[in-house]
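Re-run with default settings, no changes from the original entry. Doing this only to confirm the output is reproducible before filing.
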Amino acid sequence: MGENKDRNFVTALARGLDVLRSFRPHETMLSNAEIAARTGLPKPTVSRLLHTLCKLDYLSFDETTGNYRLSAGVLSLGFGVISGMEIADRAKNILLDLRSGPNSYITAAVAQAHLTEAIYVAVERSREDISLAMTIGARLPLFSSAIGRAILVAMSQDELEKALSHGAQLTPNSREAHEDSYKNAKAEFEYRGYCSSFGDWRKDVNGIAVPIKAHDGRIFAINVGGPAVNVKQKQLETVYAPLLKAAAKNLSLQP
């Protein structure tokens, strides 16, 4: 994480945040052992962090199961972030229009990068009842998802280097593959005007995405996608790509 090189880096805080990041969408509870495995931290350290986070109401302990769940403190932080992202409100009707197109299996979303992930900040879910139900807060990998790649191609060199370095720390020997993914995404965006992921993130998911540069300089991306069996590559490229480009331009230009 860089704590060995930066004297101002607070390792305890970073570890506490790692514990909170251990919880994934649709997971209600985790055990001490599961959190230790996901963070790579010793169990005694995890126990102390869990105790502190419970005291601060970011986690709560379930005495029946002996597991931990996210508490209201985290929710207040999340709503604080979302409420500060006016793009989520501005994107609502645009996402609805994309979602309401000819394919009822399409989901449309806007995301922003966090470390090596793209975090959904606005979503309009498919009109169909599908197993891959994406929600606000869903996390997709930057280097293999369409929306992640769209964010990457809009990054400055410094921002890209941070993402590559963090990815290499999390997954040793991944840098070369991540660099190749970025180069391919950059070339595709320059040629086609969008980034794609046809089975790269998940074999059963297809999607395309376009970056958004907010008026304050922040980078987001907007995507459309869905189950590969229902959302075909050709339809995304011929029908939805022009709509997506127009939507991204609209959001980028809005103050």
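Residues 11-75 form a domain with the Arc Repressor Mutant, subunit A fold (CATH 1.10.10.10). The chain is about 45% helix and 20% strand.
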